């Protein structure tokens, strides 16, 4: 029980840190706004110019970032638990790439529809991600069960292949579109607004709530296929359900913020170290960790060089890669 | 008969080898039954199929007259617990958490463990003599303690039937006997029907009421240990020459295999 209250404490602390980082992130940028004005602007009072910067530009972007972090981290956590492999992540498995190429194809063939089609893009991304999943699932389904080994190696192959095709496709674009697409491919929150936020919220709320209710079943899946079946889990069905949900999450995020890597990989690892492997704690913890990484990554990207903006995907990769190597190294020792 | 397990025309097998065909088997309830046979004879596959870890291509397994392949898998988990050989605990999980997982089939949706569930978890740990280890991480336990923790998890499922796939493998002789005595006690006090795959014939003889010998995916013979463990049968099943004797003080049939019998090896 003492252990449980410690874990709850960690979750509350994380939530507070996340809130604080959002406040600080709002404060950062080309024109810095004092924290006092930030708080004022939240309530719609203060200097009108600053209210616009904060309420129309920065806040939606930061909240979109937080949501993307939540979605990607959750997707990564589920993939890692379901496959029982600590390296699974929507980026590595090619789900992000599948979602990405679908969106890219949409942009290449219907560039004029981009502006009006915010609602359609997540659906495209979802179809792309799902196609990769269906392919991987059929590829890895051997002797009546899902082979995790084939699933992972197949995913890595898919990711590499699709990324190559995306590069070829994007070189055929005209210059301004190419810039937009390449920024989007590495993952960027540039230009996101309240509209994106509403959309993302709409797409994320169902799978997030679903997974939180599902946490005990995921705990059982973690015991291994045979033990889980023995305990009365319909493992093959749960595999399909959970993989579907993780694609849903990843695709929704990719459709808005592009291919931000590493969040899905690193957040569950950090969360495991903080609260252990029980999913009723692990999932919320990973969600907040992912949000935190994304919000801070974006803030750093805006702050480091003020004249140009470094996309959040690059910042996250640069910061996460060494940390992840450190984690792996420590684990194997 | 209650809790009787019946395999009817059962056929299963994965990939090449390890398959069996048209198996008919009745497991007596309230007894300890051991499956014996050479490596690759299909005894593990039979155990896994009879506990629905493997889907058969043909045939049925009935518990209380109901097919386990047509029942809700959670309902099966309330009647039958299975301890696979490959069971490994997730990193960092405590003994108590592992054992509490045994309550999963009885807990629906988001409900937390009830007082009754906690009592059962406590009882299962007590029965397996691992109460003092309850806060320890499973990774840090010795082989024998780990196996006890897993058995406690299966016990917490509160089923009348317990399947175990080679529960004594990788344990030294004292822990092998310790685990087998624990299972025997559970059978005697809780009337749990136990079905297990065993390698050691003398253990099978000492601890089971019923022995089923499997050869090349077929049930060769079944009966009491004294009926099964004979020179002739050991030559057929394991291709070994053996001396059979009766334990001087305990009265069990014992065997001392002493040579590989090339002639019967096909």
TrEMBL record, chain A:
CDD domains: TM_ABC_iron-siderophores_like. One of its GO terms (cellular component) is plasma membrane. The keyword Cell membrane applies. InterPro entries: ABC_BtuC-like, ABC_transptr_permease_BtuC. Keywords: Cell membrane, Membrane, Transmembrane, Transmembrane helix, Transport. Its main location: membrane. Gene3D superfamilies: ABC transporter involved in vitamin B12 uptake, BtuC (1.10.3470.10). It is found in: Cell membrane. One of its GO terms (biological process) is siderophore-iron import into cell. One of its GO terms (molecular function) is transmembrane transporter activity. The keyword Protein transport does not apply. PANTHER family: FERRIC ENTEROBACTIN TRANSPORT SYSTEM PERMEASE PROTEIN (PTHR30472), IRON(3+)-HYDROXAMATE IMPORT SYSTEM PERMEASE PROTEIN FHUG (PTHR30472:SF64). This is Iron ABC transporter. It comes from Enterocloster clostridioformis. The gene is fhuG.
UniProtKB/TrEMBL annotation, chain B:
Keywords: ATP-binding, Cell membrane, Ion transport, Iron, Iron transport, Membrane, Nucleotide-binding, Transport. Residues 5-241 form the ABC transporter domain. One of its GO terms (molecular function) is ATP binding. It is found in: Cell membrane. PROSITE patterns: ABC_TRANSPORTER_1 (PS00211), ABC_TRANSPORTER_2 (PS50893). Its main location: membrane. InterPro entries: AAA+_ATPase, ABC_transporter-like_ATP-bd, ABC_transporter-like_CS, P-loop_NTPase, Siderophore_ABC-ATPase. CDD domains: ABC_Iron-Siderophores_B12_Hemin. GO terms for biological process: iron ion transport. GO terms for cellular component: plasma membrane. It is a peripheral membrane protein. The keyword Ligase does not apply. PANTHER family: IRON(3+)-HYDROXAMATE IMPORT ATP-BINDING PROTEIN FHUC. This is Iron-dicitrate ABC transporter ATP-binding protein. The lineage of its organism: Bacteria, Bacillati, Bacillota, Clostridia, Lachnospirales.
